[in-house]
Structures are given as C-alpha cells and as structure tokens.
Amino acid sequence: MDITAATEFLARSTTLTSVGWIGYIIIGAIAGWIAGKIVKGGGSGILMNIAIGITGALIGGFLLSFFVDTAAGGWWFTLFTAILGSVILLWIVGMVRKT
Question: Which residue spans traverse the membrane (predicted)?
Fold first, then answer.
C-alpha cells in the first residue's frame, strides 16, 4: 500500500457520516443500551451507555471502513455500526475484567 492509498484510507475511515453530533449522541445512547442487553452484564446508566455507544461507533466505523465506505451511511447504518462496535467493546471489557 503506497502513501496515497494509505492517506485516502485513513481519511475515509475517520470521516463522519451525515448524522451529526446530536445524532451521534442519540444513536450512542440507543446503541449502548442495545449492546448492554446483548452482552451480559453490560450497560451502566444513560451516560455510560452514550459513552459506550459513541466509542463503539468509532470502533465499529473503523473496523467496517476496511470493507465499505462508512461515510455514506445514514441513521440505520450508523446505528448498526455503533451496536457492532459497542458489543465488541463490552466483550473486550468483560474479558479484561475476568482476568
């Protein structure tokens, strides 16, 4: 991978979707809550759900950017991405807590 391709890839993986910051907070809260229901023992109140959801959206967006253009997604794609990333994040946190 040359420098130009790497730069384009990084720009694509960090581009925000058309949802906006308020949308990210709303989607983060929903995704964090859903991920808390999927992963046993996850979810810890609305503020933690928002933090988990937004962090999960960043993780999920980064991972999915290897396969699709994540900046082209709307609300539903962003929600799916945030849930995927949040589940991964909660799973990793659960694994770390066990050790």
Answer: 21-39, 46-68, 74-96
CB 60 within 8 A of CB 81: yes
The dihedral sign for the CA sequence 66, 50, 87, 79: negative
Q: Domain ranges in the chain?
A: 4-97
> What's the whole-model pTM score?
0.70
Is residue 89 a contact partner of residue 48, using CB atoms and an 8 Å limit?
A: no
Q: Which of 1, 70, 2, 57 is nearest to 29 (CA)?
A: 57
Instruction: Check the CA dihedral 97-54-60-4 and report its sign.
Output: negative
Radius of gyration (C-alpha) of the chain in whole angstroms: 14
Q: pLDDT digits over 16-52, tens only? A: 556 677 877 788 888 888 888 888 765 567 777 778 8
Q: What span, in angstroms and rounded, lies between the C-alpha atoms of 14 and 91?
A: 23
